[in-house]
Every structure is written in C-alpha cells, then in structure tokens.
User: Fold this.
Amino acid sequence: MTAGEYSVMNSWIYPITQQGVVAGSNSYNFDGARGSLWTTYYQALANYRLIQSRIETSATPANMNNLYAMLKTLIAYKTFKTTNNFGNIPYSKAGYAPINGAVAYNVPYDKQEDIYSSLLTDLKWAVDNFSTDATQYSPGSYDTFLKGDIAKWIKFANSLRLYVAITMYNKNSSLAGTHIAEALSKPLLTDGEDIGLWPTAITGLEFQWRQWSFTQDCNLRMGSTMWNLFSDNNDTDGSGIFDIRAKIFFETNGANNWVAIPQNQATITETGSPYNIANRDVNWSNKGNSNYSAFNFYFVKDVKYIPELILTAAQVYFLKAEAYNRGLGVTANQATAKAAYDAGVTASLTMWKKIAFNTPSWVVNKPAQEALTAVELNQVLTNTKVAYNTGDASSSLLKIYAQTWIDQYRQPYDAWTLLRRTGGKTPMSSIGTGNYTGKYGTLYKFKYPDEEQSFNNANWKTETDGSDVTNKKIWIQP
Assistant:
C-alpha cells in the first residue's frame, strides 16, 4: 500500500466502517488515496496486458497456463479492489498502451456489473487451468507471493471467485449463484492459509508507509462499536473483555484504562500521542496522557513481521457461512452455516493470536503461547454477542457480517465494501447517526483522479456527466 492509501485508511475508511474513530479533525483529505490507487492499478494492468500478449503469441502458450492463471488471479484481485473503490472504471480496453501506443490511453469506462462478470470468467478459467503437469512453465523464485504452491494458488483463485460472486449476488443472483455453487464444490482456503503480504516470506519487504501513516499526526482511536463486540461492559479495568482480539487490536489509554470513544460523538477531547515511536520505545507507558484507547502500538512499531492481509481463511469461512445462511447458490442450511461460522471465528482468533505471538518486538500483553486455547475459544463462541443461533437466521446473518468486519480489522477497504453491498448491515452505532451521516455516511466511492479529466476527458464526461461526486452509489449497493 502507498502512503496515500494508508493515510486515507486511517483518517477516513476506519470511521466510515466504524472499525475506529478519529479523535478531532481528519489529518488527510478523503481524496488523498485516489491518485495512488488509480496509478498503481493501471500500471499493473498495463504489465498484465503486455505479458498476456507475449503468452498468447509464444510458441507453446498451453505450457504457460499456470503463469497465465497466476496473472489472471492477481489482476482479478486488483480489479475487484479498484472497481469497489471507484465504481465504473476503464477496464476491457484499458492497459493496452504498451502494445497499441498512446491511443490506448483514451478508453471508455466499463460498467461495474460487466467487470464483475469478467472477473468471474477469469477466475473460473484460472481454477480450471492450474496444473501440476511437468510441462508447465514455472516462474520459480520469482513467485514470491505463494512460492509456486499450485494447490494454494487454486484455493486463492477459487476463494476470490466465491468472494466476488457473493459480493454481487444481490444484483445478479443467477450468474453469482452458479459461480457460488461451483466454488463451494472446489478447494477453498482453510485454516492457516491466510493470503497476504508477509514480510517474513518476502526478502526485504517492510511496511514503512504504515508506520509513517500512524506517526504523522494520526488521531485514530478505538471506538465503542468495536469495543462493544469485545467486552460485556465498560469497566475500564478490562474485566468485561471476552475476546482476545481486543488486546491484540487495541491498548489502554495513558492512565492504563480501557476507554472507547463513543462512536459518532460530535466533540472529542484527546491530547495524547500514543503513536510517538521515540517516546514509546523508551517508555511503553508514555502515551502523552491520552484519554482514549489507541490502536495497538505494535501495528505502528513493527514493519517486518505483521502482514498486510488480502484474504484470510476466516473470511472464506464467513463467506461460506453466508452462502448457507441465505441459500446463495445452494440450499439454505443453518447447521452447515453454523459450522462454517464457528470455523471462521476460530480461524480469526487463531491467526491474530499467532501474529502477535510471532512478532519479536511484541512484549507488552504478548500472548503466553501461540496456540489458541479451548478457554479462549469457548468464551467467544458462547457469548451471546457471538453465538450462532440456528433458529434465527436473520440475527445470525448479522453476526456473520460482524465477525467478518472484525477479522477485517487491517482490511478496512474490504469492510467498506461489505458495508456498502449489505446496505449497512455491518456493526453500526445507533447513537449520533446524524453526525455519522453528515461526515461519513454518504461517502460511497472515490472521485476519479484529476488526470482522467485531462487525458481521458470525453470518456470521463460520458461517465460522470461532467460532475464527479462521492455520494453516487456503486453498482453493488442496494
């Protein structure tokens, strides 16, 4: 992720999703991420088109199926993310400048519904064409992502296919249902197979921009919406906490108390500086007299061990749970939905505890052991805020969304997609809704970068009618 993506994530996407609260004014403009999101995507798309052309014109293109499937899967993920951020985007005719020259810069916008359909076609092709045949070209050590593990590549592509299909189901149930049913019949990511950028697996990878985004006047704090799903009460000693992720995601305030900012509060007084690395490295408790609980400092301090996640096993379990809860492409079955949901909660707790335990710099509130204990799991799964009720599919569906939203703690852009495609069924405070709506509630998309008006003006005008706004709903929204 770029500096712009991180800064807008902390200042805007977290409060939009209510996974966090910004104490005081936002440090960065909401438009601060759109340029980098757009540029990095179209650079990747251009590279994809060029390699695609070379594969198709090679002497033995069939021997390149694995490489082609890898590329289709990766560009599908990046396209999925980009269209969810902007809505309609140039896609089917975009990225061809390295092949066709400058004329290829001026291309029309594709409708999001057509983009989704294309992604499902590409992901199905990838799943069906990955092969362990010895004749397949291997990128070898250049595959720093999944290390040439074809079985995991298949699971990633198929899981992403399930993700895309469920995200669009409310808009095209026929097409989505077919892909959901087939995806559920093929291998999916399972326990411990959490897809992301792991610094420990990629030589030289460090997330310096993540650290920068917190240390540059970041006012991000724990909000009551997340807190209420982790604790049975507001006792500041933390005695009500029943979910181990509370102490992994967040920390106490300057007085060593657990204090959440009431979500959507109009005026917030916060004087602390909990993300000051120079102070905290010398004295952990030196949080600058902060009044409220901050995001855990280790997500700021560490750049070498804590990953940036793409698609976790827990999220895949929750997608499966939603499919069986609602009967998406399959017959509704609450017992099957519950089993997948419980597996998702277990996978999320396990992953986050493992991340904390295996981060060497993590000292304060470090888990005593890597493995999730039966007690830790039981106190979450049996809590009334979490427990799946097979007799009440509607309330249990909201719990599926809530646990997906929690697992996406470091994927707020994905939580934003979940919020929009469900029509606001992710955890949301019922207090101060006017304050939320006025500042965050109608931010549905990013505006297109200014360069689109300069270099693709005619197509930009056709798409926007000359007025690009952030409160225009994207296709997946109800």
Summary: The first strand starts at residue 21 and ends at 22. The first helix runs from residue 3 to 17. The beta strands are 21-22, 195-197, 220-221, 308-311.
